[in-house]
Amino acid sequence: MARKIVSRKRKAAELEPEQCSQDQTLCKKKKLPLVKKSFVCYLAGQQIKLRNEQSYHQALRGYAAHRLPALLKEEEFQFGTLNKVFASQWLNHRQVVCGTKCNTLLVVDVMTGQITKIPMLKDQEQPSAIVDQQGCGIHAIELNPSRTLLATGGDNPNSIAVYRLPTLDPVCVGDDGHKDWIFSIAWVSDTMAVSGSRDGSMGLWEVTEEVLSQTDMSMDPTQVPSYTHITHKALKDIPKEYTNPYNCKVRALAFNNNSKELGAVSLDGYFHLWKAEENLTKLLSTKLPHCRENVCLAYGQEWSVYAVGSQAHVSFLDPRQPQSYVKSVSSRERGSGIRSVSFYEHIITVGTGQGSLLFYDIRAQKFMERLSSITNYSSEKLKPKSGEEILKLTSGKGWLNHDETWRNYFSDIDHFPNAVYTHCYDSSGTKLFVAGGPLPSGLHGNYAGLWS
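RE: above sequence
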C-alpha cells in the first residue's frame, strides 16, 4: 500500500508541471482580450463610434428641421429702390449674395443690413442690339462644391460670369453661347457649370487651371481687376419635337451628383434628364403632370427625387420610375404659382407668388400644420382637425414704387404680396433668407428678410 501511495504521489508530482503548464495556457487565454486593443481594432471602434455620432447628428438635424419652421421670426432688410430679388445664396454665416431684376449683383450682411454692390462683368464685344436688362436681370447664382467659385449672369444677361470666392474677384465671362437670357445655372463639378437659357439651349462651361492662373497673374492691387473670356465646351438644345419650339425655354436646372445626371425643366411642361460630365448627353424627356408655369426645380439627394414647382402644384419625380409614379401636391394657393423650392433634411420649403412659405414633410407626405397654442385638449371641440390649417409664413411689406404703372393699373389695390422668388438656408439650417418682390411684371419693388 505504501508503494502505491508513493507511486501516486510521484504521479501527482509528475502531473503538476503539466497542470501548471495548462493553467498557464488558460491564464494566457484569459488575457487575450488585451490583444484586441490593436491599432486595427481601435480604428474599427472609432468608425463605429463615428457612425453612431453621424446617425445621432442626422437625427438631431431632422428633429430641428421639423421643429424650426414654426419658430421662425422675420427681420426685414431695406434694399432701397432695387427691383425684385430673383436669386440668392449664402456666402458664409453672415453674408448673402443676391441678384435682381434690374441686373444688380450685391452682398448683404445679415448682421448689419449693409449692402455692397459687385461690378458686373462685360462681354468681350458688346452686342449691337441694346439688351433690355430691365426685363430680365440676374435669375441664377450658384456656388461650386468647394465654394471657391461663384457663377451668375453677366452684364449681358445672355452670358455667364464667374467670380472667385471669398474675395468676389472676377475670373471669366462665357459670352459666345446663348442668344437669350440665362435662367438657371448648375455646377456639375468643381470646375464645370451648365447654364440653361430662354433660347432653349444648355451650355457647358469649364473654368480651367489655365483660366485661373491667368487671373492670378493679372491681379494687381493697384489696378482694376481684369478677367478673361471663355468659350463653351458644349452647347445642346433641349428636344423640341414634342411641342411648340417657341415655348421650349430652359427654366430651371438641378444636378444629381451621385449619378452625374442633370435635370432640366422647360416652360412647355417637360422634364429632361441629361448625363453631365465631360459633355451633355440626353437620357430622357417626360411630360409633367402640371404643365403651366414650371419655373423652379430642386433635387433631394437623400430622397433621390426631383421637386418641380408649377402654377399650383409641387410634383415629385423619380426618373427611375414610370411616369405614373409622379406624385403631385397642391399648394392651396391656386393661380399664384410656386416660385421657389428647396430641400433641407426631410422638409421641402415652398415659396409662392402670394408671399407664402409652406413646408412639406416628405416623410409624412403632407404639409406641416400650424402648432396650436392650446395644449390641453380635454374637450373634443378644442381638438384641431387634421389638415385644418397648414403652417404658413408670410413675407413682409417690402418696398413698392408708386410709379405711373401702379397709378394707372393698381392704385385701387391696398396691398400687394411679395412673391418669394428665392430662398436659401444657411449651413446650420437655422437661418432662412427669403427675397422677392411684387408678382405683376409691370410693378417695381423688392422684399428681403431673414427668418431665424
